Structure formats: C-alpha cells, structure tokens
Amino acid sequence: MRNAKVITKVHYEGQGMIMSEFTEARQSLPLRSAEFRRRREESWRRLEEYVERVEKSGISALSADEVQQLPLLYRAAASSLSVARNIVLDRSLLLYLENLTLRAYLVVYGPRVGMTQSLTGFFRREFPRAVREMRRHLAVVGLAMTVGVLGGYLLVRGDAAWFDLLVPEGLAGGRGPGSSASSLIREELFAPWPGFVEAFVVFANSLFRHNAMVGIFSFGLGFALGLPTLFLMAYNGLVFGAFLALHAEQGLTLDFLGWISIHGVTEILAILLCGASGLVVAGKILFPGHLPRVESLALHGRRAAGVVAGAVALFFVAGFLEGGFRQLVASTPGRYAFAATTGALWFCYFFCAGREK
Amino acid sequence: MTRTDRADALLEGIKRKRRVIVSPEGIPLDVRIAAHGERLTAFVLDMTFMTAIIVGLYLSLVPILFSFVPLFSSRVRAGMTLVLFTGFIVRNLYFLHFELAWQGRTPGKKICGLRVIARDGGALTPSALIARNITREVEFFLPLSLCLTLDADAGAWRQLSLLAWTLVLTFLPLFNRDHLRAGDLIGGTQVIAVPRRVLLDDLTLAARARPDETAAYVFTPEQLAIYGAFELQVLEEILRRPATRENDRLMADVCLKICRRTGREETISPEDARRFLNDFYAAERAELERGQLFGRFRADKTST
Questions:
Q1: CA distance B114 to B42
Q2: Total domains in the fold of chain A
C-alpha cells in the first residue's frame, strides 16, 4: 500500500508539481465521501420519510406504490451503509446510515400479520403441529402422571388416612375417608346445578384461572431442569388417584370417572401439554445439541411456549365444561358419551389439523 | 465496541451495551440493548394503560351483568370473577396485539423508544411474540399473586421457596449481558433501544461560505499522518457542539495540542480556533479517506 502512495507522488512530481502546490490541490478537491453522500442523499431522505410514517401510524400509512418502493430503498440504504463503512469517516453520516438501515430493517422485517390472523394461523396449523412434534415428551409426562395415579390409589386403598396427607384441604372440600356414599352422591357427583351465572361465570372462571396458572407454572418449572415439572405431574396424578380410591371404597368408581371425565379429558390433556412443554425447555437446556444453549432454547422454546398458550385455551374450554356442563349432564352414561365426544374431537384436532403444507 | 462508539465513550464517559445483529442481507447492524431502567419504565407505563383498559371494560360490563343477576351476593362474586377474567385476557392480548401491529412496540415501549426484535436478525414472527408474552405470566404475574396471597399459617417454607424460585426468573434480566428475560430467552427475542438520528451537514462543506473557497490553513501529509480515525471523529464531535464559552475554550485547547503535536510554530488566536480546526478536520479526513481507499485504515494515533 505504501507503494501506491509513492507511485502517486512520483506521478505528480513527474509533472513538475512542487510539494506545496500538490498539497493544496489535494485539499481543494471535493471529498470522495461528500460526493458519495451528495449522490445518494435523496433516496435516504425518502426512505427516512417512509419509515417515519410507518413508525407513526403503521404500514397502512404508505400507498401501494410506496410499499413496493420500501424494500428497494431499504436495500439501497443497506448497501450505502456497507460502502460508507469502507470509504467514509464522517461520523454523523455513519451513525445516521446505521440508524436509518436499522429502522428500515425493523419495518421491512417486522411482523406483517395482525393478531386475529396470527391467532387463527396458530390454532389451525402451528399448535397441532407442535403438539405432534412433542409426542415423546407427552409420553414421559403421561407416564409420570400414571405413576402418580397408581401410587395415590394404592396408598389410599391401603390406608385411608393417606387421603388427608395427599390432598390439600382446599381441594378436598370436605370430602374424605369419613364421607359416606350418599353424601358423595348428593353433594358431589349429582349435586344440583347451581344456576347459569354461578356455573358459567363464577365457577368456570375460577377453575380456568387456577388451572391455567398451574399449567403455565409447570411449564415455567421446565427452567429448573424439568424435575419439578415431573414431580408436579406425578403429584397431580397422586391427588387424582387418592380421589379415585376414596370413591372406589364406596363403590362409586364408575360414577366418579363419569363425573370427572366431562372436563377431565380436556383438562388432563392440557396439563400434560404444559408438562411436556416444560420438559422440552428442560431438555434443550440440558442437551442443547450442536447449538449453543441459548440458541437451542430459542429455537425450540418458541414452539413449546406456543403449546402452553394453546393449552391455556384448552383450560378455558375445560373450565367451561367443568363449571357449566358437569352438573347439567346428570347421568353417568350421558357423561361418558359427552367425555368420549370431547376426547374424539381433540384427537381429530391434534391428529389431523395442520397436516397440509 | 464499534468505531463510532469509542468517541462517545471518550467524550461523555458512556459505555452502552451494544450487540451486532446480522440482517438477512448479511449486513451487520449495530444495536443498543435497552437499559434496565428504560424497560422498567416501559413496563410500568404498559401496566398503567392496561389497568385503564381493564377498568374501562369492567365498567361497561357490570351494568349488563347486573341487569340479569338478581342476588346481591352472587353479583359481588360474579363481579370479582369478571375483573380477574378480563384482567387475564387483556394482559395476554394487550402485548401480543401491539407488538404485532406496531412492529414490536407496545405503547410503553413506543414512548421509551424501545423495540422487540428477533435475536437472530430474522423476521419477528407471531409465534416468537406469543412465546415471549405467555412467559410473562410465570415471570411477573405468578410471583405477584404469590406475594399477595402469602399466608403465614399454610407452610411458610413451601411458599417462600416457591416465591424465591419465581423471583429468580423475574430478575433474570439483571443477570445476563443482553438483559434478556425468560420470555426473551424462549421466544428468541431481544429488546433494543432505537433512537432517531438526523442527518447533519457535512462539516467539510458547512464551514465554507462558498463551495470553491480554499482552506486558510494548509497541512503537509506528514502532519496529517499523525492522527487516525478515532481522533478525527472526536474532533468532529467537538466541532459539532454549540458555540458556548466552555466549548470555545476546549477548542482553543485542542488547537494548541494539534499545533504542538504536528510541530507548527504559529500561534492560533482563540477566535481563529474554529476555523483552524475545521480546516484541519477537512484535510485530515481527506487524507484518511484516501488512505482507506488504498486499504490503509488508521484506527488511531497509536496504530502503525
């Protein structure tokens, strides 16, 4: 590179220029960077004006023509930036170009769909796909829950005192080893329907919020490497097993299963989905594969969190069923039919939806 | 640290956290990571707006509800439920809606000049936004509800350990260099500050009254070879400052230093300082840019 300087020097000196004239001539020449700016400034200003309008009032502020221009202007600005980084030393120009390119980039690559569109897209394709992809994790949490159910059932069948230990008071709601078959039937399994507002608004909602929080929580516990998620799943199973044993003791197994399955099919499915998502997160933290941990988490965590969002919707349905329909459908065969229908619907949804390309 | 950032650090003593993201065209873009304070402000603003929305919704829903619920006690219960339910729905849809509709900005973020972007430089997808916002439930609203329902009787240790664990998630942004919260980790997103910059006039042109006016002070290539790009940009910052007495004194100082360093014998009067520095800036920039064209980049005065 030093040679290049020598050559220009020799070249000029060869023409008989003395040193001071040479310096002066160089200084009065327009700067290359100023020339560069003069030629492109107009297109930058135009892009800036478009970007400003979009930032202020959304992409709809641009006409169809301008929307078509936007990516072209963006690319022009981006290439200006690349060139400027190599030939320009004007700090303000560099900062301006960097800022302009970044802002235009955010507009060009920002989300292009509204909330309703992205939500429908999510429920029609992404959610069932993501659920199908986490089959194995679902199997693991399903296993954990089954172990819990068996454990709870066997413990309480062996010694009824376990019931009070396993089931928190709030959840037991006065039920326990002392409950007689008739009180279980009257106050629980075939309790009278409390009325529209009480059933659909109050009860359904409190159930929904409670369950959704538990679900989101078991997902969040995935961050703690997944073991708490599995414990939570097993614990849910334990409580269920304890209740099952309590009713089996009184010979009400079939009625109890019917009573719980109206919403249980949906609710347990949602809990399993949350747990499985938690395991996905844990798995990606523990075994990131060939990617760095943070990237692997971002790649798979996005889908897992999507599944949790979908599960929250499932919880909403479950709360609705539990609060409203459970006491409305007051015969055991009817309940089984209802539960089977919901089960079949979910199966179809998760198995078939979003298969097309 | 990028080239342009060094001048800031020297002049104002600010060291901002910056990251480089690569756009799909392969252009590295320098972004500034949002500071904790900015994000907190944005969040508090958003919470305020959200509360306003919830209260508004509730006030419009209550008359409808009360018109067909006869009993007072169930009115209260139904009312409470409605508050909690609208709260849940609104806080989950608020962030999602605005971040989709306003290119990664909620009203609070817009006011603070923040944006959500995809960390890998790709397009910001709805699923990333759903992911980062559903996680907020665990990060913020869960510990909040745990705090509100702390009950001394019912197993204090269990509750406290639960709270401690969730608070670790809440304060996660304080413990990583990109200020990511758990939702950002899962969604693959990042919150950055995007200030607006205006294009200032070129100093080499602005200082001249006429375009063909020549420089009053002339420098030899040897004198110009002393400094590098960093010094040039610091000088640019100083020249762009408004003319106050303090800045004038600073300029006279810089003038003196340059003269001494380049071995110029003349003394520049304080009135001529700006003129001298402008000419020096123009000459130095021309020299350095020419060098760059030949692939000879001089970062600062210490580089060889």
A1: 8
A2: 2
Cβ–Cβ contact A251 with B under 8 A: no
CB contact under 8 A, A298 and B124: no
| Tens digit of each residue's pLDDT (9 = 90 or more) over A193-215 | 666 666 666 677 777 777 887 88
Same-domain check for residues A338 and A248:
yes
CB contact under 8 A, A198 and B74: yes
B169 and chain A in contact, CB less than 8 A: yes
Looking at chain B, which residue has its C-alpha nearest residue A200? B78
Task: State pLDDT tens for residues B2-50.
Answer: 555 677 777 766 667 788 888 888 888 888 899 999 999 999 999 999 9
Amino acid code (one letter) for A187: E
Question: Which pLDDT belongs to residue A324?
Answer: 72
CB spacing of B197 vs A28 below 8 angstroms:
no
Is the minimum CB–CB distance between B115 and chain A shorter than 8 Å?
A: yes
Q: In this complex, which of B85, B101, B285 lies closest to A58 when CB atoms are compared?
A: B101
Long-range contacts (CB closer than 8 Å, 24 or more residues apart) made by A56-59:
A58/B101, A58/B102, A59/A107, A59/A112
B222 to chain A: closest CA residue: A23
* Residue B1 pLDDT greater than 50, yes or no: no
Residue B224: list chain A partners with CB under 8 A. none
Interface of B with A in 76-95 (CB under 8 A): 77-78, 81-82, 84-85, 88, 92-93
Chain B residue with minimum CA distance to A60: B101
Residue A20 inside a domain? The answer is no
Does pLDDT of B291 surpass 90? no
Q: Between chains, do B131 and A114 touch, taking CB under 8 Å as contact?
A: no
Q: Are residues A52 and A162 in the same domain?
A: no
Task: Tell if the CB–CB gap between A1 and B130 is shorter than 8 Å.
Answer: no
CA distance A154 to chain B (A): 26
Sign for the CA dihedral angle at A58, A59, A64, A69 comes to: positive
What is the Cα–Cα distance from B16 to B8, expressed in whole angstroms? 9
Most A-contacting residue of B33, B127, B189 (CB-CB within 10 A), to test interface: B127
Residue B97 has its nearest CB partner, among A44, A87, A115, at A115
pLDDT on residue A268: 92
d(CA B304, CA B292) in angstroms, rounded, equals: 14
Residues spanned by the domain of A103: 31-108
For residues A227 and A319, state if they share a domain. Answer: yes
Higher pLDDT, A4 or B50: B50
> Are residue A133 and residue A271 in the same domain, yes or no?
yes
**pLDDT of amino acid B289:** 85
Contacts of B78 in chain A (CB under 8 A): 197-198, 201-202
Q: Show which of A66, A87, A108 is a domain's final residue.
A: A108
Q: Are A277 and A182 spatial neighbours (Cβ–Cβ below 8 Å)?
A: no
**C-beta neighbour count of A303 within 10 angstroms:** 21
Same domain, A137 and A216: yes
Axis-axis angle for helices A64-87, B273-293 (nearest 10) = 90
pLDDT tens-digit profile of A81-111?
Answer: 999 888 888 888 988 999 999 999 988 888 8
Based on the domain organization, do A98 and A125 belong to the same domain?
no
Mean pLDDT for chain A? 83
On whether both A201 and A281 belong to a single domain, the answer is yes
Paired tokens of B93:
């849809």
Helix (H) / strand (E) containing B117: strand B114-118
Asked if A265 and A313 sit in the same domain, the reply is: yes
Which helix (DSSP H) or strand (DSSP E) does residue A69 occupy?
helix A64-87
**Domain positions in chain B:** 3-193, 203-293
Share of chain A above pLDDT 70, in %: 88
Mean pLDDT is highest, among A67-76, A291-300, B119-128, B241-250, for: A67-76
